Every structure is written in structure tokens, then in C-alpha cells.
């Protein structure tokens, strides 16, 4: 019998959301707790990478967080980002977000017309063979994008500017859920760090994305519900709703 569900992310700000529909339709309690949080590197920590952002003519950004920490670090290090800097973003959303930091001009901000694939930016990059690229990353990232650029003749310097950190579970809060929904591999690591002796038993685990599924299985957990790209359900609330409907 599923009565309490934990989602490892912040509670939605709006009252009308897929989680409230789960609660109303199936009479379950949905709790929310962000298993991980983001911390920016200090200027001192960043300097240990021996990277000077002003040595580059272009910045590659794969998230709004990346943009925030790039400009934050430049300000902390008292670096004036030149107007000539080019920005290559993995989505229009990230590209438009730059209006918060720069005088936005289309000729210096590039993003795919559709989707979020950096591959679609290669023609623009190849038109500027003398560009020097700095790619803003978290401490948790894959080499896939960097390898893709290298395979297509684009040299990229990775720069770690922020990190993913485990959020400690409140000592006074019981951990007694019938179903736990995890969205990232980092969330799986946080679960293990917070509860090193926890045994899954009959508790169900729902996972979003293949990376989270792999992380759970490698950590010795059983995955009962899946959602994400290429799955039967695009979101965990949809997948969990289907499971509750059938059981």
C-alpha cells in the first residue's frame, strides 16, 4: 500500500501541478526534499585550475547555472568580460538568459534553432576557426560533449565553476516512505551518503533517465518505475500515476 511518496526535488511553487493531482487522485502524501544543491567555486578555488577566462574569445554554456557562475566568478576576480565575447549555448532558453548579464546581440550569442544539441552549433564554430573556447561545467559532468567537439576539430578547455553537493537529511525528519523518486545520479549518491545502512526492502524506487537507473543499479538498488526520454512515460508523476492506477 503506497501512502507516502518522496520526490527528491523542491516542492512546486504553484498549487496546480502533477504532484497535487497524484495526491488528489490516489489519496497519497507527496513530500519533497532536494537531495543535492549547487555551490559555486570561490575565486581562490577556481584559480587552482590555472585558467584565465580572459584568455578565451568564446564561452560554451549548457545551463543557466553555468552562465550565473561564469559571470559571478569573473566579477569576484575583477575581470571585465569584453563586449566582443561570443557565447555558444545549448538552447535558446540559455541564450536568452544572457540578457541578465550582457547587452544582448544576436551576432555574439549562438544557440540551436531547435532542441538542445551542441552539434547544431558546429557550422557557426567552423566559420570562426580562430575562436578559443572555454566550456563552463559542474564537477559532475561527462566527457561526451568535450569529445564531440574534439572529434569535429573544435578545441575546448573545460572549466569547473560550480559543484553538486549532498544536502544532509534533517535529523528530526523520519525517513519512512513507501516510494522514493530520484531524478539524477547525484541524487542516488546523496541517498547513499545520507543513509549508508538503509535497505530498500519493499520500498519502491522510481528513476528518471537512464543515468539515474544505472546509478541505482550500481548502488545495489532495485528500480521499480522508470520515466524519461525513450521511456513509456516522459515524467515521473505520469509513470507513478500509471503504477498507482494499476496497483
Count of the domains: 2
Helix content: 25-40%
* CATH top level assignment of the largest domain: Alpha Beta
Helices, by number, come to: 9
CATH fold annotation of the largest domain:
Rossmann fold
H and E order: EHEEHEHEHEHEHEEHEHEH
Strand content: 15-25%
Terminal CA distance = 9 Å
Mean pLDDT: 93
- Low-confidence residue ranges: none
Radius of gyration: 21 Å
Name the strands of the widest sheet in spatial order: 3-8-7-4-5-6
Q: Architecture of the largest domain in CATH?
A: 3-Layer(aba) Sandwich
Number of strands: 11
The biggest beta sheet is recorded as:
6 strands, mixed
Shape: elongated
Describe this protein's structure:
- The chain has helices spanning 18-26, 43-47, 64-76, 92-97, 122-126, 144-151, 185-194, 210-218, 236-246; strands at residues 4-7, 29-32, 36-40, 58-61, 86-89, 109-110, 133-138, 156-166, 179-182, 204-208, 225-227.
- It is elongated, with a radius of gyration of 21 Å.
- Strands 3-8-7-4-5-6 form a 6-stranded mixed β-sheet. A 5-stranded parallel β-sheet has the order 2-1-9-10-11, sandwiched between helices.
- It is built from 9 helices and 11 strands.
- The chain folds into 2 domains: 4-35 and 167-246, Rossmann fold (3-Layer(aba) Sandwich); 39-164, Rossmann fold, CATH 3.40.50.
- The chain is an alpha/beta fold.
- Helix content is 31%, strand content 21%.
- Helix 1 packs parallel to helix 9 (236-246).
- The model has no long low-confidence stretch (mean pLDDT 93).
Amino acid at each position: 500500500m503506497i501512502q507516502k511518496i518522496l520526490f527528491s526535488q523542491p516542492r512546486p511553487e504553484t498549487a496546480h501541478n502533477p504532484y497535487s493531482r497524484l495526491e488528489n487522485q490516489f489519496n497519497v502524501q507527496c513530500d519533497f526534499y532536494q537531495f543535492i544543491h549547487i555551490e559555486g567555486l570561490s575565486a581562490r578555488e577556481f584559480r587552482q585550475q590555472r585558467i584565465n577566462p580572459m584568455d578565451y574569445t568564446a564561452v560554451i554554456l549548457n545551463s543557466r547555472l553555468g552562465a550565473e557562475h561564469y559571470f559571478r566568478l569573473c566579477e569576484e576576480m575583477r575581470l571585465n568580460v569584453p563586449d566582443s565575447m561570443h557565447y555558444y549555448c545549448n538552447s535558446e532558453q540559455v541564450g536568452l538568459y544572457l540578457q541578465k548579464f550582457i547587452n544582448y546581440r544576436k551576432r555574439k550569442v549562438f544557440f540551436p534553432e531547435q532542441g538542445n544539441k551542441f552539434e547544431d552549433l558546429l557550422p557557426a564554430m567552423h566559420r570562426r576557426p580562430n575562436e578559443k573556447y572555454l566550456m563552463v561545467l559542474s564537477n559532475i559532468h561527462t566527457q561526451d560533449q568535450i569529445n564531440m567537439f574534439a572529434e569535429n576539430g573544435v578545441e575546448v578547455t573545460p572549466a569547473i565553476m560550480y559543484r553538486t553537493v549532498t544536502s544532509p537529511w534533517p535529523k528530526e525528519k523520519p525517513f519512512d516512505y513507501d516510494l522514493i523518486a530520484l531524478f539524477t545520479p547525484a541524487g542516488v549518491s546523496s541517498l547513499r551518503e545520507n543513509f549508508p545502512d538503509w535497505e530498500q526492502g519493499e520500498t519502491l524506487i522510481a528513476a528518471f533517465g537512464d543515468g539515474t537507473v544505472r546509478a541505482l543499479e550500481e548502488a545495489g538498488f532495485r528500480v521499480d518505475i522508470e520515466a524519461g526520454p525513450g521511456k513509456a512515460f516522459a515524467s515521473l508523476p505520469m509513470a507513478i500515476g500509471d503504477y498507482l492506477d494499476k496497483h
